[in-house]
Amino acid sequence: MRSPRQSNRGNASDLRRRIAVEAARLIAEQGLRDYHAAKLKAAAHFGPPDSLPLPRNGEIEEALREHQRLFQADSQPRHLARLRAAAIDAMRFFSRFEPRLVGAVLEGTADAHSAVCLHVFTDNLVELTSFLAENGIPFEQQDRNLRLDSGRSADLPALRFLAGDTALDATVFPLDGLRQAPLDRISERPMRRATLDALLDLAKPPSTA
Predict the structure, then answer these.
(1) Tens place of pLDDT for every residue, the chain, 209 residues?
(2) How far are the Cα atoms of 77, 78, 79, 112, 138 from residue 74, in angstroms, in the given order?
């Protein structure tokens, strides 16, 4: 027989799982990209969010992959392939700025709501913005706060623009930012980055041999 303490732990674990599943649904179906906002909105379905056991980002990521596998098995892979093709074009375009692919397009969870997210590197932001202007590409610029490690964060410029109907988001690092990636919001470990060659390998169709 389970003790009351074990029962409470089980109930909390079950509720946290249900919140993660609902947050994943909101991300997949409504395009919420902020995991914290998604979990708070999901928790509101079950009671006051500040009194509930909120799932970790990794739990939401796992639930998102499961949701895509169950409910978007046809559409999500097509969107992912399209976005990876757009990422290849974008990385070739930005080749002089040492581009690296990050985020959902790299991790395989990108969908119709996702942007292609890049890290680009230069010690001269004007060189990059002038490059976009010279190519007739209008963009929006904002600051983005990223955690560099457990004790440091930094505000970095981020440029957003469209390539056809695909949204691209390029966070601009100084050149020495190539040495260490910022912390991932999900794993809290250094963010996974991919070069163009790595992306080309990833985008190859699976062998039928």
Answers:
(1) 444 444 445 577 889 999 999 999 999 988 888 888 998 999 988 876 667 778 999 999 999 999 999 988 889 999 999 999 999 999 999 999 999 999 999 999 999 999 999 999 999 999 999 999 999 999 999 999 999 988 899 999 999 999 999 999 999 999 999 999 999 988 889 999 999 999 999 988 766 54
(2) 6, 7, 9, 12, 33
- Total of domains in the chain: 2
Does 209 map to a domain? Answer: no
Same structural domain, 46 and 81: no
Residues 124 and 196 in one domain: yes
Strand 116-121 to 166-173 pairing: parallel
Q: What is the pTM of this model?
A: 0.84
Report d(CA 176, CA 158) in Å as an integer.
17
- Full domain range(s) for residue 196: 75-203
- Do 14 and 40 reside in the same domain of the chain? yes
Handedness of CA 60, 200, 88, 177 (dihedral sign): positive
Tokens linked to 66: 């499961």
Q: Which residues contact 70 (CB under 8 A, 6 or more apart)?
A: none
Residue 108 and residue 43 share a domain: no
